[in-house]
Amino acid sequence: MFSKACEHGIKAMIYIATQSLNGERVKMGDITENIDSPEAFTAKVLGELVKHGIVESLKGPYGGFYIQPEKMKTIKVSEIVAAIDGDAIFNGCGLGLSECSHTQPCPMHHKFVKVRDGLKQMLETTTILDLAMGLKSGQTMLVRI
Questions:
Q1: pLDDT for residue 101
Q2: Are 135 and 141 a contacting pair, CB within 8 Å?
Q3: Which parts of the chain have pLDDT scores under 70?
């Protein structure tokens, strides 16, 4: 459903958020090790999220990636998806057709619109804090052990 870049971006953001709740900045190597992601690929994705103001980073020996705890309450997963993948998942055709619309629907259009709208609502109402708290509580996981 999401691109690999988006999957890695969401996982990285969840991990950064859990560490930020502890007042820590996270180095790239720590992120990639804990979310099982390639370093160069993850660096590119996080660079895009920094550019969009979704996550912050500092260079130097005390640097790393972090999210202000208050900001975690407002960062919606939909913002991460839009920054990395754009809005095609919210507007695109389920079959990938360029001309699909309500007036000229593809065979899946009417059923896919319901799924797409439900996904959009879920992503727009879920914050990075919601996901980080699930991980911290042990109710969810990022990497299979």
A1: 87
A2: yes
A3: 143-145
How far is C-alpha 121 from the chain's CA centre? Answer: 15
Torsion of CA 46, 43, 94, 78, to 10 degrees: -10
Token pair belonging to 20? 């930020």
d(CA 129, CA 116) in angstroms, rounded, equals 23
- Both tokens of 69, joined, read 């705890």
What residue ranges do the domains of the chain occupy?
A: 4-136
pLDDT at 91: 83
At 67 the three-state DSSP class reads coil
Closest CA to 90 of 54, 116, 127: 116
How far apart, in whole angstroms, are the C-alpha atoms of residue 6 and residue 80? Answer: 8
Instruction: Tell me which CATH code domain 4-136 carries.
Output: 1.10.10.10
Q: SS3 for 139?
A: coil
Report d(CA 52, CA 25) in Å as an integer: 19
Q: pTM of this prediction?
A: 0.89
CA dihedral 65→17→119→81, nearest 10 degrees, is 0
